[in-house]
Specification:
The chain is an all-alpha fold and 139 residues long. 37% of the residues lie in helices and 3% in strands.
Length: 139
């Protein structure tokens, strides 16, 4: 079912990392948690980039982590010590099938937006299979 997602779709959906953060106490992928005083130059309490956020902390994939744009692609590989790139992010620059789209999205934000919208729609329409069939209740 999910094999209908193309390389372009996968790269476009990865671009959603342009917004949001990872937290030590949620995913464990970074050292910074959600507790007071934690975060990077972009995510700590008082950082200019997070002025519109009700929370602080964690580590973002982009400097302006509350703005949906193509900065995930334009900034990748700049080795900014205050952002995170997971191996699944970095492969977008090394795998030939992904790199062509990563490079295109870095140069053309409108192309990224169009591909993201199409891929998000496709993924949403694939739906999900609940296990158990009635879903998860009582949590």
């Amino acid at each position: 079912k999910y094999d209908s997602m193309s390389d372009e779709d996968i790269v476009a959906l990865s671009g959603a990392h342009t917004v949001g953060r990872a937290f030590a106490d949620r995913s464990g992928t970074v050292a910074e948690g959600s507790a007071a005083g934690q975060g990077t130059a972009y995510t700590k309490r008082g950082a200019a980039e997070g002025q519109k956020s009700l929370s602080s902390g964690g580590r973002s994939w982009t400097k302006n982590w509350l703005v949906f744009d193509n900065s995930y692609f334009t900034d990748m590989g700049k080795n900014d010590p205050d952002v995170i790139y997971l191996p699944t992010d970095m492969v977008l620059q090394t795998d030939a099938g992904f790199k062509v789209h990563c490079d295109r999205f870095a140069k053309d934000q409108a192309a990224f937006f169009a591909s993201y919208a199409s891929a998000h729609k496709k993924l949403s329409e694939l739906g999900c299979k609940w296990e158990p069939a009635q879903g998860i209740t009582g949590v």
